[in-house]
Amino acid sequence: MLTTVLSLIVVLGVLVFVHEAGHFVAAKWAGIYVHRFSLGLGGPIRWLTFRRGETEYSISWLPLGGYVKMASREEDLGSTALEGGRPAHQVPPDRVFEAKPVWKRMIVILAGVTMNALFAWVVFTFLAAKNGRQIDPVTTVGRVVEELLPPEAEAFKRIAPGTRIARVNGQAVTSWDQIAQGIANTPDPEIVLELADGSEVRAAIHQDALEQRLKASQALQPFRAPVVGQVVPGRPAARAGIRPGDTITAVAGRPVTQWYDLLELLRRRGAEPIAVEVARGGQRVSYEISPYVDSITGPDGKPQAIGRIGVAMGGDFRSEPLSPGAAVVEGWHATVGASTQIVRTVRGLFTGRISQREVGGPILIGQLAGESARMGLDTFLAFMALISINLAVLNLLPVPVLDGGQFLFLLAEAVVRRPLPLKLRERLTMVGLVLIVLLMGLAFSNDIRRLIGA
Known about the structure:
Elements: H1 2-30, E1 34-52, E2 55-70, H2 77-82, H3 102-131, E3 133-135, E4 141-144, E5 165-168, E6 171-172, H4 176-185, E7 191-195, E8 200-203, H5 210-219, E9 220-222, E10 228-231, H6 236-240, E11 247-251, E12 254-255, H7 259-269, E13 274-280, E14 283-289, E15 292-297, E16 303-308, E17 311-313, E18 318-320, H8 324-351, H9 362-374, H10 377-395, H11 403-416, H12 422-452
Antiparallel strand pairs: 1-2, 3-18, 4-9, 5-6, 5-7, 7-8, 10-17, 11-12, 11-13, 13-14, 15-16
Helix pairs in contact: 1-3, 1-9, 3-8, 3-10, 3-11, 4-5, 8-10, 9-10
């Protein structure tokens, strides 16, 4: 619980700071007077507030975002309350927000989302430079998990184990990563798998139906040789004498041709003692092993009891080192891919291809932040980058209380050569505020529903 709370504070604190720092730096560059830079909304906490120059820096009471309070001719009640009250300092007329050219104000408004996108790019680039490109050099199908297949991908059932995939939607593939990414992210409304024998398998799944796309990619699983990569100390396999590098050839007298055969046989036998035959150095060795029973989540989402012996699969996975330039390009591709995924998610929510139950709020973000933190720094940083892109894309939505809506106001001002009427902007802003409140209500209700298992 503590890890979850601390992880959420770090994620939101860093990303809100990055976003507001973008607005702050751009406002200073434009010559706009900045009253306050705050993490959190509402009034500042006195003992966490200090002043440097003309700007007050603070942490405020309501931990749901942050703000940069710029000098403005128009102080509306809503923003004044959220930004800690009406400022006391008098500001020269040429330093208020509205006194600056429209193009400068546009830069100030878009600076926050730009910083969020740059943050994600930097993080993805760092991870690419540190870890290289991870490659799973398999293009042969090991099995098709029919329980995961959405109805639109029924044709995948025809793909026999041992079949090699040559292309996904016309793109040649040399790794399983490319196959999975192609199925999940191809922009075409149909997935086309070209097999090595020249035949094709098609699945008509819309590009915005992300859940169906993901299930289709997960249902198709790569061939895995039954080679032991790791033996867990103290578990039945280790006690029996099985070693890393052993090839499992039979379990309970049944031949094993790939790793999934081993998993299926263990699942069926549970804790029942079994004979496991392995090939080692040109010899066959047989062991009598008593598995232990573990519980996992099955394809239907329900707990499922399975037998385990304490071995992990080996494989030909490799890491390809990247030069600094290649890491920057890889980071850019990851940023664009994450942005595209979020745009498709938003579009899918509006078109009904994605259920509103998938919308998550701070509770879900906290849970995911905690899980990613427990998995290590790299996973946590990747999660932060993904949330940063989420903030950037969602802030660009044309809703008046968001940066995207404020940018549209400025764009209209640039077209008609004068600001939109204040009353119109206030009404549109109120509509936007209602929409945001409704969205937050949906997100919180979904989070609570997940917590109670409803």
